[in-house]
């Protein structure tokens, strides 16, 4: 599921399985005028990263093969915004350091419009 990209515009690549968040993120991106592409595997992520990418939005609670996801991300070095929940922060902590920023789903929901348009900057990580 991707949206048309204006000529030359870098899009956001979202590694998200949760249909609720796919719908929420997709609608927010549409309203912000930011192209977005959703992927569910490391192979699909590698293909998506062949085009200019503003940043990668990564669900750290999605039970992905995170070793493969990060191995795919590292040579391309697009900024990575990971998101988790307070409850799962300790379980997802091994991947926090490999992201440029990690937020809770609540923070993601609040900040998503500005993140989509402004990009990702390193801030404090979620405390376990």
Task: Summarize the helices and strands and which ones pair or pack.
Layout: E1 11-15, H1 19-32, E2 36-39, H2 42-48, E3 53-59, H3 66-73, E4 80-84, H4 89-96, E5 101-104, H5 105-118
Parallel strand pairs: 1-2, 1-3, 3-4, 4-5
Helix pairs in contact: 1-5, 2-3
Poorly predicted sequence stretches spanning 5 or more consecutive residues: 1-8
Count every helix, treating DSSP H or I runs of 4 or more residues as helices: 5
Structural class: alpha/beta
| CATH-defined fold name | Rossmann fold
- Secondary-structure element order, N to C: EHEHEHEHEH
Tally of DSSP β-strands: 5
Largest sheet data:
5 strands, parallel
Our Rg estimate from Cα atoms comes to: 13 Å
The overall pLDDT average reads 88
Helix content: 25-40%
CATH homologous superfamily title: Response regulator
Any guess at the CATH architecture? 3-Layer(aba) Sandwich
Shape: globular
Structure description:
It is a single chain. This protein is 40% helix and 20% strand. Strand 4, helix 4 and strand 5 form a beta-alpha-beta unit. With 128 residues, the chain is of the alpha/beta class. The chain has one domain: Response regulator (Rossmann fold, 3-Layer(aba) Sandwich), CATH 3.40.50.2300. It is globular, with a radius of gyration of 13 Å. Helix 1 (19-32) runs parallel beside helix 5 and helix 2 runs parallel beside helix 3. Residues 1-8 have low confidence and may be disordered.
